[in-house]
Each structure stands twice: as structure tokens, then as C-alpha cells.
Amino acid sequence: MLDRLIKEGKTMAVLFYDNNDRKSQKVLNELENIDDECDTLGIVFVKIDNADEAKEYGIEKIPALMYFEKGIPTLYTGNLEEEEKVLKWLENQQKTDEIEDITDEMLDMIIEKMHHVAVLFYDKDQKKSQKILAELENIDDECDQHDIAFVKIDNDKEAKEYGIDTIPTLVFFEKGIPHIFEGDLMKEEELLSWLVHQKRHSEIPDISDEIMEKLIDKVEYLAVLFYDKDDKQDIRVLNELENIDDELEKEGIVIVRLDNDAEAKEYGIDHLPTLVYFENKIPALYEGDLLNEEEVLKWLIHQKETATIEEVTDEILHELIEDHEYVFVYFSGRCEEGDECDNILDELENIDDELDESGIVFVTTEDMNFAKRHGIKTFPSLVFFRNKEPLVYKGDINDEDEVLSWLNEEDTLEIPGRIEEVNIKMLEKILAENEHVVVFFYEETDKKSQKIISELENIDDECEEKDISFVKTSDEGIEKEYDLPELPSLVFYRKKFRKIYTGDLMHEENILKWVLELHESTPDVIESVDRKTLQVLINDVEHLAVYLYDDKCESCDEILEELETIDDDTDEHGIQFVKSKDNKLASELGIFSFPALVYFETGVPIMYDGNLLDESQVLKWMIEQRNDESIEDVDRETFLEYIDTKEFLAVVFYVEDDPKNPKILRHIELIDDEAAEYGIKIIKCDDRLMAKKYGFRNPPGITYFRKGKPINYDGDIDDEEELLDWLTDPANMEMTDHIEKVNRKMFEKICHTSDYVAVFFYSDDCKQCSRVLAEIEHIDDDADSAGIDFVKIDDKQLAKQIGVFALPGIVFFKMGSKEPTIYAGDLYDEAEILNWLMVQKDPAGDMIEHVEGSDLQRIIDESNALAVYFFRTDGCDQCTSILEELENIDDDCDRHGITFIKTQDLSVAEQYGVSDFPCLVYFESQTPNVFEGDLSEEEEVLQWLITQKTEDRIELITRVMLETMVEETQYLAVYFYKLNCNICDQILEGLEKVDDECDIYGIHMVKIQDPQLAKRYSIKTFPALVYFRNGNPLIFEGDLQNEESVLEWLIDDENRELADEIEEVNARMLERLLDESLLLAVFFYETDHKDSVKVLERLEKIDGETDNMDITFVKMADPRYARKWGVTKLPAVVYFRHRFPSIYRGDFESEDEVLDWLRKNRYRQPELNIFMYALIAITTAFVLYTVFLLYGFQRPVQAPPPVHPKQQ
């Protein structure tokens, strides 16, 4: 997982720690405090408990923190317990854009893991290096854009390993192969062009002899062209070989060139050009025509794919014998194709693989000088060099089987009177084939070890008499490979189970006694093993049970006695049972308390969680694990049926008798359950015809069907985690042009692997979901092209957890972001949705406009939806940083019709009661609402603004705003509350439900946090609700938690109506009154009209009398709505009875005349005005005209013609 994240170029901080180390735990606890801040910075913070992984990055001491940016690591060298300094360092790493300085271990790691790396070898104290570095910093970003990692290293020793003598020097590594830049490093543009050229165009790199030695050690398949760059023929050959460079790369063969006569002569090369192929450090000479590149390509591929005996020179042979313990040489003499010596060589090719597996190097040579120096006079001959000692084969050279048998004999391998020197391959073979082995591990250059060997030679014969093999080995890295505490070490092996000698290695008699005692002793029923042996068993033994215990454990011995009784039973079932005190291995498996039992099948651990004292139950559990097969085995008919019926189906094709199958199937069984969680069915099938049909001529193989469409797995079939990642990769699971349906497990996987994900939440019982889905299907391809994965999921519970309470809904997830973003626009407008998705992916846009003074006030007065960011630069540290965050949502606000501006106009801020900076105020039709959340969370701010625009929310206001609104608003409900008050928040949620109803009745509801202002209205406890009617306050004394009772109280006529005042209504209120009131009088007027004001003053005098007649009297300043009822001249009074209107045509000079007219209408049938008469007349005329057309023009029915006599 770590390698994948690094490869993807994630910006991340990695804490390497030890879960059992107190200091690590302390550091971890401190760094947990800055995790959120790292998320804000876009830095993924992870931890890993793996010492081996740490060593890969050159980390020896744990805990350690490493920062990765674009795959390049930087190690933190400060105190990890000071989290603030760590955070500051991480911020600095992210902000500064410098070429990273790395160590030699990091360089090796970067070269291995990254395809294109530019490395500047420099000296930080050298002026020239400093000057060049300053120039190269200018192209660092351009290198990033071309996916070239640029690093620098100040390490002379590392430079010399690459043959670099002049500092500074730049080396470009392409897939581990170095290219040295020979131009002027001060010309950064020229260097950049060279780097891009090297990346885009594959050329055979020119290397030094030091680099060649490194490549021989690291690269498995390497071809080296030794040439002279001043020779025209050599350049011609080079140009021809350039033509096969790409083909060699596809085959995994690296080709390089070296212009060094001295190095060529060390390999016995007398003429140039010459091509040498190295496979596992063993060289082979090409003797064909180098100008025929096709022939060269064919030869190189043949060398790689087949086991061939390499042809070498005398010089190469000498090096091989010096460097390797076992070298078998076929001295052919002068040999032409078709000669007997050539036929013998062909037969010997058949045993090359077997010798290679045994660690024996097999080569051939025509040179006879070396042979003659060892007394070989007849050709062809076979000579076996054992630790430089030659042994001539005297048998039948034409019988390769007899040759192989001779080489495997102990008398052949051993040198009399000497402890045999073996390599790692030979040692593994000896340990596998011999029951008792003593091994002396040592360093070849250690003088003390040489003295010890002289002593041990004295007891070699005694060991052989007891059938105990005695060998020694000094291969590089042997102590790590065999997990030895130190070198030299003496180890006794019994069936791979080892014991390390702890006495004095110079006392051979004591050693012999120790060896013979171990040889004669009876092993424990359950064998005790050390760490290395256990690791070998886990890797080699298919079914292994390990009892982990501790000396401090009181019950461990008792349990061990019980388990000893089932040891024979486990052997009968092919389960090897061992015990170990390896606490380190236990901790790696997550075991921190003892005893514990772990069952390994093909190296995969399964923990036993039952009663260890019940040995019969333990045995039963182990046998169940041994025989468990969870993957369904199907025949052809079922297989074809599953392809048609299963949405996701993985088929493992296998051959019944293949010995590799149990291990492969066991690995796949381990992921069967987890794959099922993704909706993937795994089956196995041994139908060879079906396997062949889907591309597997030689099973095993895996085919994955997605809605019936197959793809084949080409990864490591033994790596179940890699297979599961491949099966659940969104790119593999998506097979149609439609939005893919996923389950919860698949959804979680996509969110963890994709940078941008859009999720459509729907439900089968949602009527509009299918229609919305049909619309957004049109933008799936566009979203995919933009790198946004679009999926759909039917999961109401998950939707609610995310915050989607009404389906359908669209949610955008961005990797590294704390919270997802919910779409709040029109779900039927796919263009708007696509635009919104693009903005969420890249929220960067234009700068927020800066406005002040009269322009600011004008915008506030004219805008229907306006967000104003009040800030100041002096005395406000966070104002600027928050502004930078808010810049990201400016475009989003524009798309939602919200104008976003910023201002430092303190006079306007004071006008709205803004005294704390920064502050965000949203104005909707001049009504202000203060944002009370975290301004640094721009996504939260955006959602709040959208909510304010699309939903009618209760606005948060300041004291100054309240005082203004009390003066200007006829009906105002003010909710006083405090911060951090749970009951306040609960009641507020309830009041939000009745806010829309309040709007219908013309009641504006707001909220305020101002305890001092609350005292002015005698409010002592919070929360509280105050109702202002034309500025007159009234405190609500009921239950605020019952929002319905609050609404009833607010709209109650006794509370709403003020003495001698006609109530002002809006269009919605009037419609409601028309529906609910039997008798209603409406005074339509204009606000700025003088006559309207005078008439209103007179009509206020008769408001009480209309109440007595049960006539509701209201006023409305809406000329357009008045025209709906035939009113063309204002002011006017319209009387409604059951919604039937009657317009007053009299004089408004006397209110008594209006009252008399209302009284007459109240107590008699309603009179129709001219408008209504005209409407009725037109309707009647239309009906009559229609009837006339239908019946007035019908043709008379004609009589039928007379019948002809013949027809009768």
C-alpha cells in the first residue's frame, strides 16, 4: 500500500514506528495532534510498523518521519515529540519548491522505484555547485511536469561508485540505467531539453566501468557493447543496435555501451566492438555479425529464454573461478559447427538447468592456454573447479546423465581433508537433502575466522563418520539471509531445525562434543525453532502450526503438555507442529499476549481463538483449516450459467494433477470472502477446453467476467492481495458506458483509490430517481474524461450517514478532503451538474472582487443574493489566509447566482454591527445573515451560502441589524440563544421547520447571540423568543420545543393585530386568507402615493367596525396583484365573499361611505360589477355559438337510391 501511494505521487508524511516501543507510542500520541492540520494542508499522514520497510529507505533508527512529495523522500531530523515543529517543517516542505537533498540509501530506493530520475551530484560547500544549483532550481517545476524526479546528493563516495570524478555532475536514470550529461550545467534550458529528449527517445546509454559493475550486480539480464567511440565502424554497429533497443526493453534485457579498452581487456576482449551478455553475473560472448541487428536480437532473446552454456574467454574464466565456489568448464578446443565437440556441447546443454539450481556455474571456452596451465592436454575435456581446486572428469563425456550424477556425488563436491566451501544455493540444497548438517558462517577477510576454520578442519572427519555434513560459507549478506546474531557463527541443523553454538569457537573438542550430543539426542515432541528456522518453515512448509509462548507465562507449560499429545495426529494429517519464543514474530502477527496458536497454510497465518487446553478441539480446528476449500468447483454447464447470471465472476482455471494448484488455490481462498463483499463470485474450473477458449493453454490462470465480458489476470497469481486489488479496481469493474452500480464495499474502495468520485444516491422505490439518472447518464463520459469516477449506489443508510436525507442526491468526494460536498442545484439540469463537478474538482477561479463605499452599499441594496467578506489587514493574522481559501469558492458562488465580494470598509461593517474580523455576511434582498461557522473550511462556507439561497433559513443577525429591522419590519420574530447550548440548537432546528409558514404570514424570523441585548427585553434565561409587531415586543411564554404551538402563537390574530391598524399582507398571505376567510376586505394601495396614505388613515378608523361584522380587513401594496382582480386604479377596496370579488366604486373622502358599502355587501347577495357582467356575457355567447356550429350546418339525410329489379 505504501509503495502504491508513493508511486501515485501522493503528498504524504510516513511515520515509521515500532508498536512495542514506548518512545514510538509517545511520538505517535504527539503527532496525532497535528493529523487534522496535515489534512488541511493536503498531506496524507500514515504510520507503518515495519523495520524492513524502513531499512529500504535507509532508516536504521525508529521512530522516524519521512515526507514524500511526488515520490521523493525527505527525512525529518528534528525532535518528533515536538509536534508543532514537525507541523511547521511539513508546511515548509510543502511550500518550498527546492530540489530535494537525499541520502545514498534514498537514492538507491528512488532509482529502483521511479522510472525517470535526474540526480545532481554536488558539493554543498563548493561555489560552483552552489551557482549551478541556483540555475537548476529554475527547471525543477518543468521536470515535475514531465514526470522527471529531480534530486541532489552531496556524497563523494556515492559519486565514485558511478565513476563520477568531477563534481558537480548530472546523471539521468531511466528505469535504473544511468545517462551522464556532458553539456554545460549552467545552461538549464539546454539541460531540460536533454532530459526530455532522454525520456522520450530511447538510446543505448554510455556508461563508465564503475556503473557497469553496479549494473552487473543489480540487473538480471544485461548486454554490454564494448566499443571505441572514435572508430567509424564501431559507431555504425552502435547505430544498428539502436534499432533493437526497444525490443530488448520489452524482453527485459538492458543494453548499454562502454568506451574503455582497459576494461574490455580484463574480459579477454582483444578487438572492438564486442557484445557481452551477462545473466546473473555470468558473461557470454556474442560471436556473430554485430551489423546484423536482427541476428543479435534473436541471440540475446535466446540467451535469456533458454538454458545455454555461456562461452567465455580465459580472462572471464579466471574471474569466475576466483569469485565462485563451483565452476564446471567444458574445454572444447578449436571447435566448428557440426564437429563432434559441438555435438557434445549440445548434449551438455540438457543438464545446465540442474547445475544452475545446485549453484554450479557451467561455461565453455575454446581458449586452450588456461587449460594447459592446469595440465589439460586433450580436448574436449570437462573440469570441475571446487573452491579453485580442479577435478578432471574421466567418465564418458558423451553421456550427460552420467556427468550430472558425477557432479552430485559427495566425493566430487568435497575436497578431502577440508571443510567444503559452499554458496547459498548449494547450502540450501545440502540442508534440504541431509538430515544433519553443521555450517560455519564467516567473513572471508576475517583473520580470526581463518584460524577457527583451521581448528574445525580437525573434527571434519569425525562428523563425516556420524553422517554429519560439515560445510562453510562466506557469501555476501549471509548473516542477514540466515538471521545470524553475528559472524562468525557455528550452527547445527537437524531437518532444517537449527541450534547456534554459544561457546568458544577455537575449542574444537568442545564443539565436537556439542555436535555429537545434538546428533544423538531425541528431539522434543513439538520441535522448538528459532526465528530463521521458523521463517524457512513458513515459506517452505504448506501446512504448519506454530505454538507461540513465553517463559513468563504461567499457563504456557500446561498447555504445551496438552498439545504434545496431538503432535502425532497432526503429522498424520500432514501438519508440521513447532513451538517458538519469537516475540518479534508474534508482534508482527498482532500477538502481544501468550500463549497463542497460529496455523500457516502456504505462508498465510490464521489465528486460533478457542480454548488451547482442549487439545481435541485444537486438533479438529487444525484439520478443518487443512481441508477447508471455500471456492466452488464447477462444471462447464454451471460455469456458462454463472457467466450469464453473475454480474462479477472470477474463474480460476486449473489442472487437477498440477502440484502447484493447492498453494495457488489456497492463496485465492484467502480473498474469497472479501471479494464476495464487493459482489464478486469466485469459482474454480478444471475444464481445459474452457481454459483454452479464454486464453489459457497451460493453466493455471484467472479470467474475470464483468457483466459477461472477460479480461485475463496477468499479475502474480500467488499474491492474493495483488489479485484482490485487481479484481476490485474500479477500472476493471467498470465495463459499460452507463454509470456503474456499486455496493458499499466497492464504494469504499473507489473512495480510497480515486482522486475524484461523484456518487448518485438513489432508491428503487424513488419515482424521480430513474428520470434523474437518465439525465445524468449524458454527462458520465464527460466526467470520466475529466478524471471523475461517476458511480451510483442504492443505500439509504449510507446516504443518511453522509448527509443525504432525500433521494435522489449527488455527492462529490475528493481524496484528502475531510467532508464530501452535496449537490444542491437542479438535478434535472445535467449541464449544471457537470459544471458543478468540474468546479468541485478544480475550485480555483477568479479573484473575489474588492468593493468599498457607495458602490458597496449600492450592491447590497440591489443584489438578491450577496456574500460580503469583511476583513482587515492590520491586527488580523488569519484574514489573509482565510481569504485565500474563500477564493476557491468564488466561481461556485457565481454558478449558484451568489455575488461574492470582499471589503475593508469599516464604516459599512459598523453599520451592520460587524466588529470582529474576519466576518462573512450574506444578504438576500438586503436582509443580512451572519455566518457563524469556521471560515477556513471553504466547502462548509459554500454549502451554507447555497443553503441560504435555496432554502429559507433563519438568519443570524447582529445588534445593529436587529435595531434596523425592528424599525423597518412590521412582524419580526427574534430568537435569542447562546453558543454551546444543546437545547438552543434543538429548538432552533424545530423553528426552522415553521420558518416558511411564518413567511406566508409576513412574519420575518431571525436569530441573535447577544446576552446584553436580551436583558433589554427582560430575558434572563436562554433560549427565548420575542415577537415585534411594528416595533412592539411580546415575549413567548409557552413551550419553545413545540414549534407548532409557536407558529399558532405567532399567527394568532390577538398577537398579530395591533389596535386601530389594518394588517399588511403579501400575496401568499392574501391567498391563504381568501381560502380561509368567508368575508374579506382588501385595501390595495401604493406605498409612495399621497392619496393612498390619506385614504389609509381614514380606513384605519373603521377597522374595529369591520371586525364587529366578522369582515377581515387587510391592506396590500402590490399593484400587479390588484390587477388580477380587475383593479386598474389605486387606491381601491375590494370585498370578497367566498373568493367572489366586488370593487368599491364610491368616494374615499368619507370612511363612513366605505363602511356602509361593506355593511350592505355583508348582509345581501353580492352584486356583480361591470367586469363580471361582461365575463358572464362573453361565456354565454361562446357556448351558444358553439352549439350553433355543431347543429346549424348539418346536411339533410338523403333517401337511398331505388333498387334495380335485377338486384332484387
From TrEMBL:
Keywords of the record: Membrane, Transmembrane, Transmembrane helix
Protein name, as recorded: Uncharacterized protein LOC103525042
Gene that encodes it: LOC103525042
Spans through the membrane: 1170-1191
PANTHER family the UniProt entry points to: L 2 01289, LETHAL (2) 01289, ISOFORM F
InterPro entries found in the cross-reference section: Thioredoxin-like_sf (IPR036249), Thioredoxin_domain (IPR013766)
Organism listed in the record: Diaphorina citri
Keyword hit for Transcription: no
One protein family per Pfam: Thioredoxin
Domain Thioredoxin: 102-194, 740-831
Highest taxon above the source species: Eukaryota
SUPFAM superfamilies, per database record: Thioredoxin-like (SSF52833)
Keyword Membrane appears in the UniProt entry: yes
